[in-house]
Amino acid sequence: MTLSEGVGNDGNGIVFTFSVGLAVIIVGASGLLSSYCPNFCIIFIYSCFIIFIGVLTAYITISLTILKNQLLSNIFDCKTSQLPNAQKTKEQIIWAETQFCKYDCICYIEKIQDWNSDYLENNRIHYTTNKQISDITQYQKCKKWIKIDGASYTYIAYLEEKYNCSGWCKSHPVYLFSNINNGIPKDACYPYFEKEYEYYVNKSYIDYLIVDFLYLFNLCFAICQCYQTSRNKKSRIYPQILYELAPQ
């Protein structure tokens, strides 16, 4: 998947392109203005911030967009895919799979951020010892996990409700997302839902766009200050050096 395809497949790419393009235009315009404005240093600093945040916004969003398309197209493999510049995240995924996702039978809980180590360990034991669950275990490789192929939807719903769990024994890409200790769960892994991914992407680019527009506001304020300064000197066109040479 190419970079252009990653952005083209998501309408949000337009937002980031506009943000960066606007930042570039502002920097160029402020560069011209700096020749006629004694406060050009302020404008230059704000412009640098704008271009930095704008490019960072586009870079992060493009990476997230490509990853999203990989997940949705079912070509994402936790162990082999190269996440865009997210080596640390990839290592966490591999670590989780090595520890807890050795089998195709994965039971996950949606609100993993609410887990704690004791809850994880206790529920894991319950999954293994509870008679109703052990009765439907069919594959030896599941061992500590659950296999319910052929079970009725009613019984599946009952188990999901009782154990606050869903997606029994389905093979999915997994993604780590937890505030437990250093961010890596102690005893579990879970699939990355599309809706949660959408929230993560939206939150990322909105945060950066807000910062970008704050710097844009500051830049506009600096330009107004320059305009007022030049106006007090009865000109907005000639460089400051001419005012200094005029009395001579």
Automatic annotation (TrEMBL):
InterPro entries in UniProt: Tetraspanin/Peripherin
Subcellular location: Membrane
Classification via Pfam families: Tetraspanin (PF00335)
Keywords: Membrane, Transmembrane, Transmembrane helix
Main location: membrane
Any one GO cellular component localisation term in the record: membrane
Lipid bilayer topology: Multi-pass membrane protein
Top-rank taxon: Eukaryota
Segments traversing the membrane: 12-33, 40-62
Protein's name according to its UniProt entry: Tetraspanin family protein
